Amino acid sequence: MIINVGIVEDEKQIRESLTVLINGSEGFTCLYAFETAEEAILAIPTLNLDVVLMDIHLPAKNGIDCIAELKPKHHSIQFLMCTSFEDTDSVFKALKAGASGYITKTTQPSKILDAIVEVFNGGSPMSSNIARKVVDSFQISNKENLEIQKLSEREKEILNLLSQGFRYKEIADKLFLSTETVRTHIRNIYEKLQVNSRTDALNKTFPK
Amino acid sequence: MIINVGIVEDEKQIRESLTVLINGSEGFTCLYAFETAEEAILAIPTLNLDVVLMDIHLPAKNGIDCIAELKPKHHSIQFLMCTSFEDTDSVFKALKAGASGYITKTTQPSKILDAIVEVFNGGSPMSSNIARKVVDSFQISNKENLEIQKLSEREKEILNLLSQGFRYKEIADKLFLSTETVRTHIRNIYEKLQVNSRTDALNKTFPK
DNA sequence: ATAAAAATACCACTTTAGTAGTAGTGCTTA
DNA sequence: TAAGCACTACTACTAAAGTGGTATTTTTAT
Question: Which residues of B touch A149 (CB under 8 A)?
Answer without folding.
Answer: none
